[in-house]
Amino acid sequence: MRLTTAQTKAGALIEALPWLTRFHGATVVIKYGGNAMIDDALKSGFAEDIVFLHHAGLRPVVVHGGGPQISSALDRLGIESTFTAGLRVTTPEAMQVVRMVLTGQVNRDIVGLVNRHGPFAVGMSGEDARLFTAVRKHAVVDGEPVDIGQVGEIVKVDPGAVGALIDNGRIPIVSSVARGDDGEIYNVNADTAAAALAVALEAHKLIVLTDVEGLYANWPDDSEVIDLLTADELATLMPTLSSGMVPKMEACLTAVKGGVPQAHVLDGRVPHSLLLEIFTNEGIGTMVMPG
Ligand SMILES: Nc1ncnc2c1ncn2[C@@H]1O[C@H](COP(=O)(O)OP(=O)(O)O)[C@@H](O)[C@H]1O
Ligand SMILES: CC(=O)N[C@@H](CCC(=O)OP(=O)(O)O)C(=O)O
């Protein structure tokens, strides 16, 4: 029997039923960033997905980065961007730009896109209500600690304000800037910040959107995506990973070891990848599970 278009659509909705049941009330922390955040149509689609999750009874929280946007702002100001071990070397001057771009620009853009659909999104910085407290982080290169400026390592998360917003029917949108008890502000990698928040909120899932299909088994060869791996398998792989995948997979590992049952890396270039991952039987991207 040939299915009509309407029947195919009904089939897709019914496929979502067990997942709607399973994830009703679940807190999902979504890291949105970088290169998945450049295209306008994808950005609008991302906002729709977040609102869809909200209406479907999940509790979405967005933590965002904005590395490419920071780099172009620094470039316009004639400030050079350098990275050590995947982290931006952040001078006090660069830190002002990081804060301005992440909290003042990227955060506002995402809040605006979500709020096209209703009064849901509330933007926050990790500095607000002491959400993220950080200390100065040193990168390690060839076994030696290297000063990378005002880059922060999160040592404490107070998720109270985020929880209160969710309980109030809002969708928190959080920039990855942290405060220190020393009075400094710190630039935190957004993957790392998302993992720390997922653990503190006891989230059911951490989803990291990026600009590749998932973790490739033999990078730079992109013919095989690892669809599932345990935390132990990932820990073994960690020393072999490079560039932007290091903080991403480290974030998945931290989340799962911290009690989050599932952490995913998904292709943010695929329209509605969030919905495909959460509400279809196949799932997509790379999933990390405990064990
Ligand atoms: N094993 C791997 N699998 C997939 N991507 C990898 C791998 N190793 C390194 N990469 C690189 O990591 C990049 C993702 O990190 P990054 O550019 O920091 O992402 P984002 O901008 O989404 O935060 C990919 O575009 C790819 O170039
Ligand atoms: C310390 C550090 O490197 N911070 C990042 C923060 C933004 C970020 O993580 O953005 P993406 O997720 O878009 O890469 C940076 O300055 O680029």
Keywords:
291 residues, alpha/beta, Carbamate kinase, eight-stranded mixed beta sheet, 10 helices, 39% helix, globular, binds adenosine-5'-diphosphate, binds N-acetyl-L-glutamyl 5-phosphate, Acetylglutamate kinase, nucleotide-binding, Glu/AcGlu_kinase, amino-acid biosynthesis, EC 2.7.2.8
Short description:
39% of the residues lie in helices and 29% in strands. It has 291 residues and is of the alpha/beta class. The strands form 5 sheets. An 8-stranded mixed sheet has the order 5-8-2-1-11-15-16-14, with helices on both faces. A two-stranded antiparallel sheet has the order 3-4.
Describe the structure in your own words.
The chain has 291 residues and is of the alpha/beta class. It has one domain (27-285): Carbamate kinase (3-Layer(aba) Sandwich). Helices cover 39% and strands 29% of the residues. It has ten helices and 16 strands. It has helices spanning 5-15, 17-23, 40-55, 67-76, 92-114, 160-167, 190-200, 231-237, 245-257, 273-279; strands at residues 27-32, 59-64, 83-84, 87-88, 121-125, 132-141, 144-157, 171-175, 177-179, 185-187, 205-210, 216-218, 221-225, 228-230, 262-267, 286-289. The strands form five sheets. Strands 5-8-2-1-11-15-16-14 form an eight-stranded mixed beta sheet, sandwiched between helices. The protein has a two-stranded antiparallel sheet with strand order 3-4. A two-stranded antiparallel sheet has the order 6-7. A hairpin with a 5-residue loop joins strand 9 and strand 10. The longest helix has 23 residues, at 92-114. 43% of the residues are buried.
